Amino acid sequence: MSTVPNSIIAAHARAAQTRGANVEAFLHRFDLDPDAVFREQGRSDIQAFGQWLGTLWREMGDESGGFCRQKMKTGTFAMANYAVASAGTLRKALIRSGQFYDIVGDCLNVSLHEEGQEARVVIQLREPSDLDRRVFYDSLLIIWLRWSSWLVDTPLLPERVHLSFDWPPYREEYEAMYGCPVYARQPECALIFDRAYLDLPVNRTPEQMAEFLAQAPSVLLTQYRRDRSLAQQVRRILNASQDPLTLDQSHVADRLAVSPATLRRHLHSEGTRFQALKDQWRRGRAVHLLKTTDWTLQRIALELGFSEASAFHRAFKRWTRINPGDYRQPPPS
């Protein structure tokens, strides 16, 4: 049985309480223990959580669940889907989603930025609040990640996630939620992924849209376990390897018990290539070392297979349009 930390449920429950919702009654309705939830101890069934949250939002008439001062009226997310249905590509869909939420309310700002070989979806809550909105930020990031994957029928694998706040009590869930490095105390909340995803076509029929909207958006929060795509499996092999730079497609295919041709075909169907995944690994590793160590650029360059620091500097600038030194932050104490 898949479970979710009660600290996550508690954060949603407290936000709903500020809007007068009878949260305890809703929890009992779905066999969730209010005492355990509000003590933030233990875990609960994730499907019960999803059903509880979806019902709570509908009966509140608020898809923000109380996290925004102005309600996100029931049906807002459905209309956002219809707004992006004819977008053509994920790039246009993400831009339209931001425009849509700008029109319907003052709480949520969603923006798309393209820099070098990376794309960045930034989530910002514009209204001040006394609530602890860390779980709401994570909910929005997960919804946009899973929604994007659904729109293009391809698992969108983020390279890293930035959070503008300190670590929440459910920090250990991030590996399962995002499947990539997560950095707290950043200037903004953002999903960072390969820019190539933006060119994928939005390809959903009206029938698929109707079926999806019958459960969205809350259902997206209960499906946060990492996508079991072949690309994600390749990523895990690269991350676990002692020397990822020496791995070629044949070695990885052997590890996955498939032929190189099958691996190549499946990766193509997921909108990527083996070399692209290796390049993404190297880019992500570079960012990680810059953010979490005090290594010199020369040492990082050698770690990533560059002959000298200047070659690494040029590659990093090509990847991100930012100098590697700008990613620096104090190493962990």
Automatic annotation (TrEMBL):
<dbReference type="Pfam" id="PF12625">
    <property type="entry name" value="Arabinose_bd"/>
</dbReference>
<dbReference type="GO" id="GO:0005829">
    <property type="term" value="C:cytosol"/>
</dbReference>
<protein>
    <submittedName>
        <fullName>AraC family transcriptional regulator</fullName>
    </submittedName>
</protein>
<keyword id="KW-0805">Transcription regulation</keyword>
<keyword id="KW-0238">DNA-binding</keyword>
<dbReference type="InterPro" id="IPR018060">
    <property type="entry name" value="HTH_AraC"/>
</dbReference>
<dbReference type="GO" id="GO:0000976">
    <property type="term" value="F:transcription cis-regulatory region binding"/>
</dbReference>
<dbReference type="InterPro" id="IPR009057">
    <property type="entry name" value="Homeodomain-like_sf"/>
</dbReference>
<keyword id="KW-0804">Transcription</keyword>
<feature type="domain" description="HTH araC/xylS-type">
    <location>
        <begin position="232"/>
        <end position="330"/>
    </location>
</feature>
<dbReference type="Pfam" id="PF12833">
    <property type="entry name" value="HTH_18"/>
</dbReference>
<dbReference type="GO" id="GO:0003700">
    <property type="term" value="F:DNA-binding transcription factor activity"/>
</dbReference>
<dbReference type="InterPro" id="IPR032687">
    <property type="entry name" value="AraC-type_N"/>
</dbReference>
